[in-house]
Amino acid sequence: xxxxxHQFSDWYLSxxxxxxxxxxxxxxxxxxxxxxxxxxxxIPPAAYLAHTQGEFSLIGVILAxxxxxxxxxxxxxxxxxxxxxxxxxxxxxxxxxxxxxxxMAEAWSAHYGWxxxxxxxxxxxxxxxxxxxxxxxxxxxxxxxxxxxxxxxxWTSVLAWLGRTVGEHPELLKGSLHRFFLLVLAFGVxxxxxxxxxxxxxxxxx
Length: 206
What we know:
There is one protein chain. The chain is an all-alpha fold. It has one domain (23-31, 40-205). It has 9 helices and no strands. It has helices at residues 2-31, 43-52, 58-83, 85-91, 99-120, 126-129, 131-136, 141-168, 180-205. The mean pLDDT is 80.
């Protein structure tokens, strides 16, 4: 995983300036589907460059990331709603979605409703899956869309703040933007704890 993150960071940093906001939005859209691209390695570097080099605006990075997340999450919702639960359950393992994960996301969605959609945008794993049960359960898309947009805005803003903070304190990187990914790993551990406390442990008790 660490090697993949390093390879992805090499590619991303080499094309970010050319790809601009469209690249940020596209990657965040993929991040909100079943494609395993962590948003923690997309938004912070862009926000860092926005602060240190002025290639982007911080607001632009946040808006591109938020809208991209919303698009990807909407695709997950409508795809799952159109396919239906039996087909999703049958196809899930072929695209890396174990039945247990889908059922966990279903329980989360059924219990918390649109508020759970909002909170899910702040948590790992469930963030990528929440569109599936929301679509299967035919949650009102207006509520789903609003909760997704709000949660994505908060999450993207947090990541952008992280990138800007590092830009304001370059000693944290000691001259290497790749050190971002050490911070990302530490940040991911903290998120993993939140995921276990608020999602996985309650699911086991259910």
